[in-house]
């Protein structure tokens, strides 16, 4: 039985998302005490999904025309630019899957957690170290894209693409991520292992093909190294992004700039409401009826 890319989503992504969503609902519920926490995770996920689509689209549309990977005949229903519609859908479904795993493995943010007490005012050396590590990934990717390095093209393009995001996340909160390293590692590792399995099945069934010319030839459990690294990196983007977003929002009062920004938001909202009220026309006053002298004469005896 042949499987399309949309069928791949129906088999490997949608069912676990539905199951994990149900388990998340059972565990978290709709209690008012967790309402703010749910909103932060949901907002962080929405931001991650939007960034995934915006940031990944140019990258895939650069690599597909170069023949780094291609799709089997009749597997996709259509494309936007060079990327299949189903690939864009994957940009949305993968973060949702990974975010649900993050919640289920125990992600919480409360004052009782020691890790949540990590201040936003991290030592400068911590931020420099995080940014340097991410930029080092970028430099390695750039070097692998040098002249005559055809077999490292996919790996180099992946590292060059991933490095700036990792540098930003690690510069913002490498210390906090390290304080939550077990949670972060588990939330990244579980969906990564699952997607490795799903991707290997898709490759074996011919849904897509990875170029031997543009890859190193190294494999991990039968999966090309570059593919395995892609899922590892993208899941790291999602987990680190949501964890850091919730942490920054939770401790925003520590940074005057964030406090001022939040106050500006409240003031602008108040000003908009005031302007709207001023634009509304004032109701015309009701006029009292003038006395009729003829009516008085008629009523006289």
Automatic annotation (TrEMBL):
A GO cellular component annotation in the UniProt record: membrane
Q: Which segments show compositional bias classed as Acidic residues?
A: 283-301
Stretches for region Disordered: 271-301
Q: Where in the cell is it found?
A: Membrane
Q: Please list every transmembrane segment annotated in the UniProt record, as residue ranges.
A: 6-25, 45-68, 88-107, 128-146, 152-171, 183-203, 228-248
In Pfam terms, one family for this protein is Lycopene_cyc
| InterPro entries membership | Lycopene_cyclase_dom
Topology in the lipid bilayer is annotated as: Multi-pass membrane protein
- State any GO BP term from the record: carotenoid biosynthetic process
Task: Name the UniProt key words of this record, in alphabetical order.
Answer: Carotenoid biosynthesis, Isomerase, Membrane, Transmembrane, Transmembrane helix
In what pathway does it function? Carotenoid biosynthesis
Every copy of the Lycopene cyclase domain together lies at: 34-101, 175-235
Molecular function per GO: intramolecular lyase activity; lycopene beta cyclase activity
What is this protein identified as? Lycopene cyclase domain protein
Q: What is the protein's species of origin?
A: Halopiger xanaduensis (strain DSM 18323 / JCM 14033 / SH-6)
């Amino acid at each position: 039985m042949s499987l399309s890319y949309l069928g791949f989503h129906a088999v490997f992504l949608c069912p676990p998302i539905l199951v994990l969503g149900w388990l998340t609902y059972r565990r978290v519920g709709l209690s008012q005490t967790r309402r703010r926490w749910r909103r932060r995770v949901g907002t962080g996920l929405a931001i991650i999904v939007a960034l995934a689509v915006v940031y990944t689209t140019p990258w895939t549309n650069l690599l597909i025309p170069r023949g780094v990977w291609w799709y089997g005949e009749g597997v996709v229903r259509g494309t936007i630019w060079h990327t299949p519609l189903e690939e864009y859908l994957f940009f949305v479904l993968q973060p949702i899957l990974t975010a649900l795993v993050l919640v289920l493995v125990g992600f919480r943010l409360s004052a009782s957690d020691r890790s949540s007490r990590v201040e936003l005012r991290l030592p400068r050396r911590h931020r420099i170290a995080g940014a340097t590590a991410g930029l080092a990934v970028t430099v390695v990717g750039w070097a692998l894209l040098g002249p005559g390095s055809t077999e490292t093209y996919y790996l180099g393009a992946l590292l060059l693409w991933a490095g700036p995001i990792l540098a930003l996340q690690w510069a913002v909160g490498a210390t906090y991520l390290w304080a939550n390293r077990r949670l972060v590692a588990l939330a990244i590792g579980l969906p990564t292992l699952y997607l490795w399995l799903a991707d290997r099945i898709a490759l074996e069934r011919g849904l897509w093909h990875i170029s031997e010319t543009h890859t190193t030839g190294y494999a991990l459990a039968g999966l090309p190294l570059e593919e395995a690294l892609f899922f590892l990196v993208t899941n790291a983007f999602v987990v680190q992004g949501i964890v850091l977003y919730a942490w920054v929002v939770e401790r925003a009062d520590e940074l005057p700039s964030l406090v001022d920004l939040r106050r500006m938001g409240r003031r602008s909202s108040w000003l908009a409401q005031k302007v709207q009220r001023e634009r509304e026309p004032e109701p015309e006053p009701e006029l009292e009826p003038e006395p009729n002298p003829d009516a008085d004469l008629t009523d006289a005896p």
